[in-house]
Design brief:
The complex is a heterotrimer of chains A (414), B (261) and C (512). Chain A is built from six helices and 19 strands. Chain A has helices spanning 40-43, 52-55, 122-130, 364-372, 377-394, 399-411, and strands at residues 73-77, 80-81, 95-100, 134-139, 149-155, 165-172, 177-186, 192-202, 207-215, 220-230, 235-242, 247-256, 262-271, 276-285, 291-300, 305-314, 321-331, 337-346, 351-360. Chain A has a ten-stranded mixed β-sheet, with helices on one face. The longest helix of chain A is centred in the C-terminal third of the chain and has 18 residues, at 377-394. Chain B has 261 residues and is an alpha/beta fold. Chain B has a domain at 2-89 and 165-258: Rossmann fold (3-Layer(aba) Sandwich), CATH 3.40.50. Chain B is built from eight helices and twelve strands. Chain B has helices spanning 40-48, 71-76, 94-108, 116-129, 147-161, 177-189, 205-209, 230-238; strands at residues 2-11, 14-24, 29-33, 54-61, 64-65, 79-82, 89-93, 140-141, 165-169, 196-201, 214-219, 222-227. A six-stranded mixed β-sheet of chain B has the order 6-9-10-3-11-12, with helices on both faces. Chain B has a four-stranded antiparallel β-sheet with strand order 2-1-4-5, covered by helices on one side. A two-stranded antiparallel sheet of chain B has the order 7-8. In chain B, β4 and β5 form a beta hairpin. In chain B, α5 (147-161) runs parallel beside α6. The two termini of chain B are 15 Å apart. Chain C has a domain at 1-345. Chain C has helices at residues 37-42, 67-76, 81-95, 135-143, 173-178, 186-192, 194-200, 211-219, 459-467, 472-483, 485-488, 493-507, and strands at 58-60, 119-121, 157-163, 166-170, 182-185, 224-228, 237-243, 254-259, 264-272, 279-282, 285-290, 295-302, 314-325, 330-337, 342-345, 348-351, 357-366, 371-374, 377-380, 386-395, 400-409, 417-426, 432-441, 447-455. The radius of gyration of chain C is 22 Å and the shape is globular. Classes of the chains: A mainly beta (414), B alpha/beta (261), C alpha/beta (512). Chain A binds chain C through residues 31, 316-317, 329, 331-334, 336-361, and chain C through 101, 409, 411, 424, 426-456.
Chain lengths: 414, 261, 512
């Protein structure tokens, strides 16, 4: 789809009404495949714009709401870096962190972003237009960081500006490696949202583990976008946990630009209440002999809706591609819904691609079996749900992150 | 019947066979033994015409130059390879496959094609040879077959194609003793003065059931020794160690038991 | 009586070989492959052999589409007023609609005003006897391998032949009438069984369902009508043969099949068109109604002219096909799509009644510059409903093949089951395969599975066949046919043979 933001040149940044909304033409509709199951009425109520005013309230990040990780922490409150709450004083060797303000999307070297093939959408344009700045993270060639870098977003919307839009630009130099954890939380009963873009470049033979923990309150909307450009021989392991928000959207677009790249994406979405949790995943194979995996699991309770729209896109000449995708959904309630769209777009002939999707419920015979062994019905359910969800959780190396996720999904099912 | 002289093959510049000589007379059964990576399978597929090899030397079957031909023309000339890893072709009926193969070869030779009814008779007879159940013909080619079934299917195909020269590439690997005996019996019944067989194998086990006239030792891309069937027993007892890095022009590392080729 | 519809009626013209002599046929499974080996091997010419056109004396309306055109069509056919009003309503709806967004299709804009919406061979559409059929039309069908003359037919297949917009003849009417089966042209049904038509027309595909369904509803000219009364198993296969002959005309036929409680019918549909440099539009609507415990099996072998290597000419095939399955009913769609420049069709089943069953088996081949966008929709409403989708897409040349499908399980559909399998085979480096399934599940007791794979013909498979003496082309043809086997097994015998022939012809030049 082509998206445009209202172009009225509003001179007064406080004059937000209308101007910072996406106009009717720009906003996606349910006819756009990527936005088919989104709450379009709520999206229309998002108000973008500089959030300096709200940032001054600077609510504190409650320590118990985020995983406790050793290593640098960058706290972003309403889209603006909060230096006081961040821990970036003594950085490990090979790591550079800088911040940038305003609506710029690139801190230093825009020429770096050679691949402009990422699909634009209205909310990306909102970031470019109304962005509140962000953070640039660089790992220099050959460095291996043994502590994770933690990016924490806190959203505390007010009535006039409810949706900060921030960017993060990440570059891993040749043969370097790092782990980045992005945690998103929010406060308050006020409607609002968070609109983020994380642009990642992996130079040749770099290796990144990227973990996204989305846990906004159910009054809010999460629009999170991760773009990855992978050069030859680089490795991405991306794990998303899409847990919070009324509409939680996690979008990954990974471009395999150099031969021999590997992208391993997995995710868990765990819906309760009236949540809609939406994963939009595309892996583009543009180079030879790359491998990609997509493995997403959804657990959907109450009246929640899960969405998986995952694509494998093999461009001409990307021979030797090995791509697989799976999406499995567990419906726990008769009001829950699963929508899955596993797409293949293949334009090369020497490829091996597979995808599969399933929707089902807890296995009655397994439940029965557990109960004959004396386990209560509730515990048996828990056990089976945990077993289903654990595939995604077990992939995580960090004990602190695993513990945080288990606590969070356990909590929703106590 | 089969004359191979100074055959060399390499894949992407890496040499596999380096000057292999082999002569197999009509009605003879030869065994080629050798350690992993010595080039045994490469030899079979170089003769059969698989893509991807750079080839030197000559190979003729009944005086016809094999190396100049497409794989199907080599088959029509009477060459049959029993594959070490028979290929699965889902959805293609085994009987249909076999009849198409047989008729392709017959057509290439200017012979009359065989009708469905007559073919069924031929197939039935061949199936008894390898103790196949009837439903075998209606299953897809090798798809979902067990290892033993795949190998028996190769011998079944050999029985139907009636080649001049059958080259069986590790047909014994992965078989239990019953299956081994069935296959050996199948091959033995196909022995005739008109037909030669080359058996490629790791172990002498199969050779207990199919007695070869000549045994060759293939090491490092060349035949380094040849002898009668006792050579197989020697190898079973002593392994290939004495032949590795062996210089064929110097004295052999074992007591001579037969004629060198 | 055995089924003996001559088997060359959709594919290339076969000369001098009689496939029936190859093997006696007892059952269709297991034999379909064997009996065609000769035929596949015989194939030599890769060109579209039905590209001839016939000089028929044709009554053509001037190009353009207005309310007057709709009135003209209705008047030409002497239709009752309710049907005219129905058409006008559809026309009004169509005017307010926009063409679909061609997500994966490259398509030149269609000028709907440049088409002619009425073309009919100048003969009375209703005939008293087969001997009244215009000899030129008879010759044309003979050339296509479809004898319309009952005396010449040993066949157990009744044929409704449609040229351009009009049904020219329906065979075996009397035999069918004895069983109580009505099989006639749509126009005749409007005159003779208006109550049945009125009750069911548009009941499965509403006029505003989509752009092309609305267009068809406004201007459809003829088509086939079948009615199988309660408890009757139709004594023969029913078949419609479609032919576009005139230039610059659209073909908009309408098919309506009604199977009452416990009725069974198998229906076949075949299509060809002359080779012309401009694109021709075919926008049909097919509606199936399967009442309680009824079963409808609908098979299509579509071989419209596909255009040439440069994408010049060919049929635009935009078809809406849908069935409604009542309690314990079963609707099965099988299609082999090898023709058309563009194919856009999604045969669907509304699984309304409890325990109803929907099936979709498809082979779609895109070669040259063909674009196929096809798949199925299974809408589960009733409890314990079951659907399965088996789709085999083959792309070669510069062809683009898209599977697009929807499996929707409504809240009411307790214990619904769906299994979908989409396999794509890519045979050239310039072609493409796309798989775009939508799965929407609103009931937790549903079990929905989707599997897809994309692959190419293995070098090792080709080599294995060649070691056994087959040429590369034969090997390719055999392997691809094997890939399609699950679908061909669902076709009636003579269609399966024909489908394999078509596939082999379309694949020529794909090797190497």
């Amino acid at each position: 789809m082509t998206a445009q933001v209202a172009t009225s040149a509003h001179s007064n940044p406080l004059d937000l009404h209308g101007a910072d909304r996406l106009d009717d033409v720009s906003r996606p509709t349910k006819h756009d495949d990527a936005w088919r199951y989104a709450p379009h009425d709520l999206l229309a109520r998002l108000l973008f714009g500089s959030t300096t005013a709200t940032a001054q309230q600077a609510p504190a990040v409650a320590v118990n709401r985020i995983p406790q990780l050793d290593g640098p922490r960058i706290v972003i409150v309403n889209g603006v870096i909060d230096v006081d709450q961040s821990q970036i004083a003594a950085l490990p060797d090979g790591l550079r962190i800088s911040t940038f303000a305003g609506s710029a999307t690139e801190p230093t070297d825009p020429a770096d972003d050679v691949d402009s093939g990422f699909a634009a959408d209205a909310f990306l344009i909102a970031i470019e237009r109304f962005g509140s700045g962000g953070v640039a993270i660089e790992v220099t060639d050959g460095h291996h960081l043994d502590v994770p870098i933690h990016l924490v977003d806190l959203v505390a919307p007010n009535q006039t500006r409810n949706t900060p839009s921030r960017s993060a630009v990440v570059r891993l130099g040749e043969k370097s490696s790092a782990t980045i954890v992005e945690t998103r939380i929010g406060t308050g009963p006020v409607f609002g949202g968070l609109n983020t873009r994380t642009s990642i470049t992996l130079e040749s033979n770099a290796a990144l583990e990227h973990i996204l923990l989305q846990n906004l309150p159910e009054t809010q909307i999460h629009l999170g976008r991760v773009e990855v450009s992978q050069h030859a021989g680089s490795t991405l392991r991306a794990h998303s946990f899409n847990l919070g928000a009324s509409y939680g959207r996690v979008a990954y677009e990974v471009h395999l630009l150099g031969a021999g790249g590997q992208a391993d994406l997995s995710g868990l979405y765990f819906g309760t209440g009236a949540q809609t949790l939406d994963q939009q995943i595309t892996v583009v194979h543009s180079a030879r002999d790359c491998t990609s995996r997509q493995s997403y699991r959804g657990v959907l309770d109450d009246e929640s809706t899960g969405v998986f729209n995952g694509g494998i896109d093999v461009r001409p000449g990307a021979d030797g591609t090995d791509a697989q995708q799976s999406n499995d959904n567990l419906l726990l309630s008769d009001r829950a819904e699963a929508n899955t769209q596993p797409r293949l777009e293949i334009l090369a002939d020497d490829v091996a691609c597979k995808h599969g999707a399933t929707v089902g419920q807890l296995d009655d015979s397994a439940l029965y079996y557990l109960r004959t062994r004396g386990i209560t019905a509730n515990d048996a359910r828990r056990l089976l749900i945990d077993a289903f969800a654990s595939q995604a959780v077990d992939n995580i190396e960090s004990d602190a992150v695993r513990a945080w996720i288990r606590a969070r999904i356990g909590a929703s099912h106590a | 019947m089969l004359m191979v002289e100074n055959l060399s093959t390499s894949i992407g510049g890496t040499p596999i066979l380096e000057g292999l000589d082999l002569s197999v007379g009509a009605g003879e059964v030869h065994a080629i033994m050798g350690p992993n990576g010595s080039g045994k399978s490469t030899f079979a597929h170089a003769l059969a015409g698989r893509d991807g090899y750079e080839i030197g030397g000559t190979a003729t079957l009944d005086g016809v130059d094999l190396l100049a031909m497409d794989p199907e023309a080599r088959a029509a000339a009477g060459l049959f390879i029993g594959f070490q890893y028979p290929v699965e072709i889902p959805g293609v009926n085994n009987m249909y496959f076999l009849r198409t193969a047989l008729n392709s070869v017959r057509r290439a030779r200017g012979e009359e094609e065989i009708g469905a009814r007559d073919f069924l008779a031929v197939a039935r007879e061949a199936m008894e040879l390898v103790e196949m159940k009837k439903d075998f013909l209606n299953r897809s080619v090798n798809a979902g077959f067990s290892g033993g079934e795949k190998k028996r299917n190769e011998i079944l195909q050999m029985a139907i194609m009636r080649p001049r020269l059958a080259l069986l590439d590790e047909t014994d690997s992965g078989l239990d003793i019953d299956a081994l005996q069935i296959i050996a019996a199948g091959v033995n019944s196909l022995r005739s003065p008109e037909r030669s067989v080359v058996i490629i194998t790791h172990y002498q086990r199969l050779l207990d059931y199919i007695k070869p006239d000549v045994v060759h030792v293939l090491v490092g891309g060349r035949i380094v020794d040849s002898g009668d069937h006792t050579l197989a027993h020697y190898l079973e007892d002593h392994g290939y160690a004495n032949f590795v890095n062996h210089d064929p022009d110097s004295a052999p590392g074992r007591p001579l038991t037969g004629t060198a080729s | 009586m055995s089924i003996q519809l001559t088997s060359n009626w959709l594919g290339t013209q076969r000369t001098g070989s009689d496939h029936r002599s190859i093997a006696p046929l007892s059952s269709k499974r297991g034999h379909a492959m064997t009996r065609t080996s000769q035929e596949i091997n015989d194939l030599a010419e890769a060109s579209y052999e039905y590209g001839f056109s016939t000089d028929l004396d044709t009554d053509i309306a001037p190009p353009g589409l207005t309310e007057d055109t709709v009135r003209l069509i209705s008047a030409k056919k002497d239709e009752p007023d309710w049907l005219l009003q129905w058409r006008l309503k559809a026309f009004e709806a169509w005017q307010g609609m926009t063409e679909p967004d061609w997500a994966k299709l490259e398509i030149a804009p269609i000028d709907y005003q440049a088409l002619s919406y009425w073309a009919a061979p100048k003969q009375k559409p209703v005939l008293d006897s087969m001997d009244d059929v215009d000899p030129e039309i008879r010759d044309m069908f003979d050339k296509l391998g479809i004898p319309l003359h009952e005396q010449k037919m040993l066949s157990n297949v009744a044929v409704d032949a449609i040229v351009d917009s009009v049904s020219v003849t329906t065979t075996f009417k009397a035999t069918l009438a004895e069983a109580g089966v009505i099989f006639c042209s749509f126009s005749e049904a409007v005159q003779d069984h208006p109550e049945l038509v009125r009750e069911h027309l548009g009941s499965v595909v509403p006029v505003r369902d989509n752009y092309f369904a609305a267009l068809n509803s406004a201007v459809f000219s003829d088509g086939s009508f079948c009615y199988i009364p309660s408890g009757v198993r139709c004594p023969m296969e029913l078949s419609t043969y479609f032919r576009i002959n005139s230039q610059n005309t659209g073909q908009f036929e309408r098919t309506l099949i009604i199977a009452e409680d416990d009725a069974h019918v198998s229906y076949l549909e075949g299509c060809t068109a002359p080779q012309r440099d401009e694109n021709q539009l075919h926008a049909a609507v097919v509606e199936l109604v399967a009442k309680d415990r009824a079963e409808i099996k609908y098979s299509t072998v579509q071989n419209w002219y596909p255009g040439d290597e440069n994408g010049v000419g060919g049929i635009y095939n935009f078809v809406t096909k849908r069935g409604r399955a009542h309690t314990d009913a079963k609707i099965s769609w099988t299609q082999v799509e090898t023709g058309s420049a563009i194919t856009w069709k999604y045969p669907s089943v509304i699984l309304q009644g409890d325990r109803s069953i929907g099936e979709f088996y498809s082979v779609a081949l895109s070669s040259k510059r063909q674009q196929a966008d096809t798949g199925s929709k299974m809408i589960h409403i009733g409890a314990d409903t079951t659907s399965s989708i088996i789709s085999k897409g083959i792309s070669t040349g510069r062809g683009q093949n898209t599977y697009r499908g929807l499996v929707k399980v409504m809240r009411s559909a307790e214990n619904a089951r769906n299994y979908t399998q989409c396999d794509s085979l890519l045979l050239s480096s310039d072609c493409g395969a796309h798989t775009i399934p939508y799965i929407e599940v609103k009931n937790p007791t549903a079990k929905v599975e989707h599997e897809a794979s994309t692959s190419t013909v293995g070098e090792d498979q080709l080599y294995y066949c060649r070691q056994r003496g087959m040429t590369e082309e034969d090997a390719m043809s055999m392997i691809v046919n094997g890939f399609c086997r699950e679908v061909f097994d669902e076709l009636p015998m003579e269609f399966a043979v024909e489908a394999q022939r078509l596939l082999s012809v379309s694949l020529e030049g794909s090797v190497g």
